[in-house]
Amino acid sequence: MSLVKAAARARDNAYAPYSKFKVGAALKTASGKVYAGCNVENVAYPEGTCAEAGAIAAMIADGETRFVEAAVIAQSPQPVPPCGGCRQKLAEFAEANARITMATTEGIETEVAVADLLPGAFTLDHMR
Ligand code: THU
């Protein structure tokens, strides 16, 4: 199954009664394992979580910490890029050349390097 398809399947289960904007995400590790997540909203709006965060949590819970490829899908006119917070979360676990495919449910896809999503990222080096 393609990574976009895995993200789309997770998106089907998104809990987004407030925004009505369902998002799915999937990550692939070097060994080929795939982890998917969806957005999970809450009546206390700030407590909602993004699809990317769900996929990362699934990967970490399974004992993996690095991904080489990611996909995000939503129903939108143009592919939806990860939000600012998710860019930082993705940067934490992305292999150096990891790429992310952003897709719409209508089949439009664009691709970008995760590293290019967060220029000037805050990293461990800043805390030395
Ligand atoms: N959302 C994601 O899940 N990922 C993103 O990268 C963009 C936004 C979700 C959060 C919220 O549930 C809904 O989309 C509307 O912002």
Task: Describe the 3D structure.
The structure is a single chain. The protein is an alpha+beta fold and 128 residues long. Helix content is 27%, strand content 27%. The chain is built from four helices and five strands, in the order αββαβαββα. The chain has helices at 3-12, 51-61, 84-93, 114-117; strands at residues 23-28, 34-38, 67-74, 94-104, 109-113. A five-stranded mixed sheet has the order 2-1-3-4-5. The mean pLDDT is 97.
Q: Which terms summarize this structure?
A:
128 residues, alpha+beta, 5 strands, globular, binds tetrahydrodeoxyuridine
Short overview:
The protein is 27% helix and 27% strand.
Bound molecules: tetrahydrodeoxyuridine
Q: What is the end-to-end distance? A: 42 Å
The count of strands amounts to 5
- What profile does the largest beta sheet have? 5 strands, mixed
Determine the fraction of residues in helical runs and give it as a percent range.
25-40%
Structural class by sheet pairing and helices = alpha+beta
Number of helices: 4
Secondary-structure element sequence? Answer: HEEHEHEEH
Low-confidence stretches: none
Shape assignment: globular
- As an assembly, this protein is single chain
How do the strands and helices of this protein lay out in sequence?
Elements: H1 3-12, E1 23-28, E2 34-38, H2 51-61, E3 67-74, H3 84-93, E4 94-104, E5 109-113, H4 114-117
Parallel strand pairs: 3-4
Antiparallel strand pairs: 1-2, 1-3, 4-5
Bound molecules: tetrahydrodeoxyuridine (THU).
